[in-house]
Design a protein that fits this description.
The complex is a heterodimer of chains A (610) and B (309). Chain A is α/β, with parallel strands linked by helices and 610 residues long. Chain A contains 20 helices and 25 strands. Chain B has two domains: 26-274, Rossmann fold; 277-309, no CATH class. In chain B, helix 1 crosses helix 6 and helix 3 (113-119) packs across helix 4 (121-130). Classes of the chains: A alpha/beta (610), B alpha/beta (309).
């Protein structure tokens, strides 16, 4: 235990209950709320996350949603703290169980010495089992008290708000801010709704929870610094697109992408733009390309199955050099797969979807904040190089809430095309320059109007069957990626610059991999990590970095190779010809946990270079 | 627009024409020499389109010619306008994106029966129901010409092709009937061999507010020669015009016209005014205008983000 502070969720070092004299100050805490999907636990989780953001705390959430429309077990996990929060947390400090099945299913996820907060109306815990693991039980008749407070419909509405009040008490949250949140969330509706919500909140807050209060004291940081915004990855992605300049979009609904299109449908009109729902995925990308051709920065998006359908048009966008942002919020595949689970198995699809040699850009945001910034950057890249850019998010990132610094919009230059301009002459496909289309409405003074085409073409866009021209145009399309690669910074290594093992990751696993590095260090093992945001083209300098480590293990949620290499590992092997690249992969539809990564490391220190 | 400019409404968007504009003439609209077979009906469609643009004295830079894949879809290379040769079947959704974002332009789409009624059939239904502001000319030759004679969705029963050497067994699609039932607000039928009638239909289509379709029989002399002779008086056929007393707003009456045996009626089957999707979207944009007026995009975004603090 360092500095009188402990990381409460750290199950490996979680021995603090033994040496307690008075409440312990903890810096961060993981709360897992388990119930059914209609209990409103997502909204409590979201409010907790928002509150944490407003209190200058770091926060990260994780949730599971049943694939069915109504009912079904569901959890929401919130990790908040005053230090750097890297992941949604492995083990829970507090489990809130609404039902017996919630208790039974999730008790394993509580760390030894943790707290079980349960609804006595529905849960009968096994006290001996709890004692064996030093878990403190705290039974609260949540359902019956809520019914009592609200005048009982028996429908149990408001139980979630009662719980919010209870947690506010346990964590000594600032009730002024809590009440304000409730007012924002329920104000504007029927007045009785707000009144009931406040009643339920105060009821929970007033409940005397006894013992639990003496266990620890939660350190709330003092406010300061930039204000924080908290939102889900899907929300951040939508705002990032707007910040980047997107003013038109078209898509077809598919989980877990749909919230992005719903939000853009509502928001884009405010910016003079629009977002439409199309009859299918092929129409969606086609409409986006039509708008982009017309001089509006455009996007489409989907999840894996929909991206596969768009692939013919992706090749067209490459050939015709039309800029477009294509978002893939990945889910478990192949086929309909596991729509509400996480997987990173569309990397190959993103890099190769389509026919012919069709170079395109692929990027992957690493956390919710990056969903905002990298989406804006993806738009910039698409427009600068007149190329389709595929952005790979995933189900975990889509639904995760994080608080991050209010973006500085003055640093983001939104992409924009000139319309209705006048140019003396225009070649849509110059061999010695990047393509920049002249949208219709552009007056071309020499009177030669451009053809935009998927046929191989000459510089004016007229069909060309010349073998020389095809080779030259193929080079032109490919060279964009080389130019972009030169623009990308060499990624930074987290931890020592050389050593035994380098963990490489991409996408939503960044925080968990860093946490694995930190935890390994506290256990006396030195690891390093490197996280890739640009996947095609890859940034330069990777081979040199990899050469400084004995083993390079690519951590990813997919499985494409019997030798344990995932999709990125195989790409990196192909790029660098380094056999020291291996994989730590998994496909259980859930996010990585720190201990899963650590358990897969080679047991012995490596002595020979492979 | 950039973050620092005010949001233009569709009404204030810069009109396509500006002082330096050159109006379209048949001379400046000339582009590559068409590669169609000599005698192909598509030449007449191209000539009619160029004449239409010239008659309308449109600024050349404001004309957009779009196509899919097939013999007829080579069209954009043969007319000197802003033009797009897209993929098979999907030009209508491409035109949707363009139409919705460029209220100052009127896109023209030229496609064949394969694009319109087979691979892209679903899109035709949805463009029709959404009533987008654009004009589609289907150059229907009842055969796949570019791939050298396979059955098309409009090939008659018994049509012998390389994929139906014993004669087609499937009932051909009835384009006008299909379009009316899909919700198209302007449906006309014409014949490439009658240039005056074809031009008149194109003019009416262009003037229509909403989704306008001209189903145009255009003979493939290479693989379906003589197929439309029954409609050409100088070849001994007759060219039945839709009766003068037909009420173009009467959907039932329009359906009954579609039942006439080949060569069927020519003229305007159906024409009604219904709000376009373009108008609907513009109305949403107007209603959603942030207050106070004149806010720039970065200010709107900042206030949206502030609500998430
Ligand atoms: S094959 Fe038929 S449709 Fe094609 S150009 Fe020749 S005549 Fe025209």
């Amino acid at each position: 235990m360092k500095d009188q502070r402990i990381t409460a969720h750290d199950e490996e070092t979680g021995n603090h209950t033994a040496v307690r004299s008075g409440p312990l100050t903890i810096r961060d805490s993981v709360i897992r709320i388990a119930g059914n999907s209609q209990d409103g636990i997502q909204s409590v989780g979201a409010m907790l996350a928002r509150l944490a953001g407003r209190s200058d705390m770091e926060v990260m959430t994780y949730m599971t949603i049943p694939a069915t429309i109504s009912g079904g077990p569901s959890i929401f996990q919130v990790h908040m703290g005053s230090g750097e929060v890297l992941s949604a947390g492995d083990a829970a400090d507090i489990l809130v169980a609404f039902y017996q099945h919630s208790y039974e299913e999730h008790l394993d996820t509580v760390r030894d010495g943790g707290i079980l907060l349960y609804d006595t109306t529905h849960v009968t815990p096994d006290i001996d089992a709890l004692r064996a693991r030093r878990i403190t039980p705290a039974g609260v008749p949540m359902t019956s008290l809520t019914i009592e407070i609200l005048g009982g419909t028996g429908k149990q509405k408001g139980k979630n708000i009662f719980l919010f009040g209870l947690l506010a008490r346990v964590f000594r949250l600032d009730m002024k801010k809590v009440r304000q949140l409730i007012r924002e969330r329920f104000g504007g509706k029927d007045e009785s709704v707000l009144r009931n919500a406040l009643l339920a909140l105060e009821g929970g807050y007033a409940y005397s929870i006894g013992d639990v209060m003496s266990l620890f004291s939660f350190e709330t940081p003092s406010a300061g610094g930039r204000p924080k915004v908290s939102m889900t990855g899907n929300q951040a992605l939508a705002y990032g697109a707007i910040a980047g300049g997107v003013r038109f979009g078209a898509a077809y609904p598919i989980t877990p992408w749909t919230e992005v299109m719903e939000q853009l449908r509502q928001d884009l009109p405010r910016y003079g733009g629009s977002f439409i729902q199309t009859e299918d995925e092929l129409a969606a990308i086609s409409a986006a390309l039509g708008a982009a051709y017309g001089g509006t920065v455009a996007m489409t998006g989907s999840s894996g199955p929909g991206i596969a359908l768009k692939s013919e048009a992706i090749s067209y966008a490459v050939m015709a050099e039309i800029p477009v942002l294509i978002v893939d919020v990945q889910r478990g595949g192949p086929s309909t797969g596991m729509p509400t689970n996480v997987e990173q198995s569309d990397l190959n699809l993103a890099c190769h979807a389509g026919h012919g040699d069709a170079p395109r850009v692929v990027v992957a945001p690493t956390d919710v904040e990056d969903c905002f910034h990298l989406t804006a950057e993806a738009v910039r890249i698409a427009c600068k190089y007149s190329v389709p850019v595929i952005l790979l998010s995933d189900q975990a990132l889509a639904t995760r809430i994080e608080a991050f610094d209010m973006p500085d919009l003055s640093t983001i230059e939104p992409a924009v095309f000139d319309r209705n301009g006048t140019v003396p002459t225009h070649k849509p496909y110059p061999l010695d320059a990047l393509t920049r289309h002249a949208p219709p409405g552009t007056l071309i003074e020499d009177g030669n109007y451009p053809n935009i085409t998927g046929l191989e073409h000459d510089e004016n866009g007229h069909p060309s069957a010349s073998s020389k021209m095809h080779a030259a145009m193929t080079n032109k399309r490919r060279d964009k990626l080389s130019s972009l690669a030169r623009e990308l910074p060499v990624p930074e290594v987290y931890g020592p610059e050389e050593g035994e093992i380098l963990l490489v990751g991409w996408g939503s696993t960044k925080g968990i991999i860093r946490e694995a590095v930190d935890r390994a260090k506290s256990q006396g093992r030195t690891l390093s990590a490197l996280h890739l945001r640009h996947l095609n083209p890859l940034p330069g300098g990777l081979e040199e970095i990899f050469m400084r480590f004995q083993k390079v293990l690519v951590v990813e949620m997919n499985d494409s190779d019997a030798n344990g290499c995932g999709q990125l590992a195989l790409i990196l092997r192909a790029e660098t010809c380094l056999k020291r690249i291996g994989g730590i992969t998994k496909t259980d539809g859930l996010s990585f946990r720190v201990r899963e990564i650590l358990a897969r490391l080679p047991k012995e220190e490596l002595s020979t270079v492979t | 627009m950039t973050m620092n400019q005010t949001i233009p409404t569709p009404e204030t968007a810069c009109p396509a024409s500006c002082p330096a504009s050159v109006t379209a003439t048949r001379a400046n609209l000339k582009a590559d020499k068409p590669t169609w077979c000599p005698g192909c009906g598509d030449y007449a469609v191209l000539a009619a389109y160029q004449k239409l643009l010239e008659n309308r004295r449109l600024p050349q830079e404001s004309i957009v010619t779009l196509s899919g894949i097939g013999c007829s879809s080579r069209f954009p290379y043969f007319v000197n306008t802003h033009s797009v040769h897209y993929i098979h079947g999907r030009i209508l959704p491409f035109a949707t994106g363009l139409s919705l974002t460029r209220p100052d332009l009127h896109p023209f789409v030229f496609i064949g029966d394969g694009d319109a009624y087979s691979i892209g059939g679903n899109h035709f239904d949805h463009c029709a129901r959404k009533n987008l502001q654009l004009t589609v000319v289907v150059m229907d030759n009842h055969v796949y010409g570019l791939t050298k004679k396979q059955t098309s969705p409009t090939s008659p029963i018994g049509f012998r092709s390389k994929t139906d050497p014993w004669g087609s067994k499937a009932t051909p699609l009835n384009p006008t009937k299909k379009l009316i039932s899909s919700g198209a607000t302007f449906v006309a039928r014409t014949l490439a061999a009658d240039p005056a009638h074809m031009l008149a239909m194109m003019e009416e289509a262009m003037d229509h507010e909403g989704f306008s379709v001209v189903e145009c029989l255009s003979e493939c002399v290479q693989f379906n020669r003589g197929s439309y002779d029954a409609a050409v008086p100088r070849k001994g056929g007759e060219f039945p015009l839709i009766p003068d007393d037909h009420d173009v707003t009467d959907e039932e009456a329009a359906y009954s016209l579609t039942k006439k045996a080949f060569p069927g009626y020519f003229g305007i089957y159906y024409k009604v005014r219904r709000p376009t999707l373009n108008e609907g979207e513009a109305e949403i944009a107007r209603d959603m205008q942030p207050r106070p007026k004149g806010l720039v995009a970065s200010e709107i975004l900042r206030s949206a983000l502030e609500r998430l603090t």
